[in-house]
Specification:
D-Maltodextrin-Binding Protein, domain 2; about 325 residues; globular; alpha/beta; 10-stranded mixed sheet
Length: about 325
């Protein structure tokens, strides 16, 4: 023992450092139980993603992170709480394209800057949105839906998982492209919107495909079209909106994990590596892709670029389509 201390002391002297600085180990992450804030209600697609990954992170970290649901305001409420947390990596928030969309629609009203105040840990998954309706509406195709919308002239009620979110934007682009009008009802996430659709309180929902995959498979909801350029392997019988005659229509959403932007970079890289290990675990990946997600597990640098690119891209879409959020 004394020999070891003498060696450490010699190393410290050569480096010009106190012995304590040499003997002390790098702090372990996580030093206490992390919290992952889900910017949607329990049961939403981002909630399913988070809880699935959290279980695997528990095995990696030796402690399973706490999942806290803070839905509402297009994800802004959860992001606001995360923006006030210490930059120690112990508060993580799941969002995705909600970050650039919040900046576009609500930037001037927010107490934080969605673009500048967060760094991406990983783009976890990409996924299509899907237009679903209740079976009682008696529409089977997108053409049926658009015909009914024209007949009702704005009285067809569409639920959106958040005001100004990806589903709202995707449906508004469809409305602009087809010259149809609707009444929108915003919810605090995909789960309550789906519940009201199943209960017959709204007519349709544009939502992340993974949130309603099982409902469509079971016939509880009718899938009319997916927003991506290609069909989803999870629901291969549901055609794309583009192939049903809406030329050039192609929108995908994504979900990812974020921390405060001034979190030490080596810590961001460590958390990212652990998340990517969890996401690419064969069991986790198989489950997520079976639900309709496309596992990406991207790097922090790729994620930060995606946020900037989406801010520019969706900003142009919102401007050119004159999309407003009340």
């Amino acid at each position: 023992m004394q020999h070891s201390l003498r060696v450490l002391a010699a190393v410290a002297a050569l480096a010009g450092l106190p012995l304590a600085a040499v003997a002390q180990e790098a702090p372990k992450y996580p030093s206490k139980t992390p919290t992952v804030i889900v910017t949607a209600s329990a049961g939403a697609s981002s909630d399913t993603l988070t809880r699935t990954v959290a279980r695997k992170l528990g095995a990696i970290w030796g402690v399973e992170p706490i999942v806290e649901n803070i839905g509402g305001a297009g994800g802004s409420l959860g992001l606001e709480k995360a923006s006030r947390a210490p930059a120690d990596g112990l508060t993580i928030v799941v969002a995705g394209d909600k970050v650039p969309l919040s900046a576009i629609f609500f930037g001037a009203e927010l107490s934080y800057d969605p673009i500048k105040d967060f760094s991406v840990v990983t783009e976890a998954v990409a996924n299509p949105q899907i237009l679903v309706v209740r079976p009682e509406l008696n529409v089977k195709t997108l053409d049926d839906y658009l015909k009914l919308a024209r007949e009702k002239d704005g009285k067809l009620v569409v639920g959106t998982p958040g005001n100004g979110g990806a589903g709202h934007l995707a449906h508004e682009v469809l409305a602009q492209a087809t010259g149809t009008k609707y009444t929108y009802v915003p919810y605090k996430g995909g789960a309550p919107a789906t519940t009201d659709l199943l209960g017959g309180h709204v007519d349709a929902v544009m939502i992340t495909l993974a949130a309603v995959t099982e409902h469509v498979r079971a016939g509880r909801l009718v899938g009319l079209g997916v927003t991506t350029a290609e069909r989803s392997t999870a629901l291969p019988n549901v055609p794309t909106i583009q192939e049903q005659g809406v030329k050039g229509y192609a929108l995908a959403s994504w979900q990812g994990f974020f921390v405060r932007s001034n979190t030490p970079r080596d810590l961001v890289e460590k958390i990212s590596a652990d998340f990517r290990t969890a996401l690419t675990d064969p069991e986790v990946k198989s489950f997520l892709e079976g639900q309709g997600y496309v596992v990406v597990a991207g790097t922090p640098e790729e994620g930060d670029k995606l946020v900037r690119d989406d801010f520019a891209k969706y900003g142009e879409v919102v401007k050119s389509a004159n999309i407003k959020v009340e």
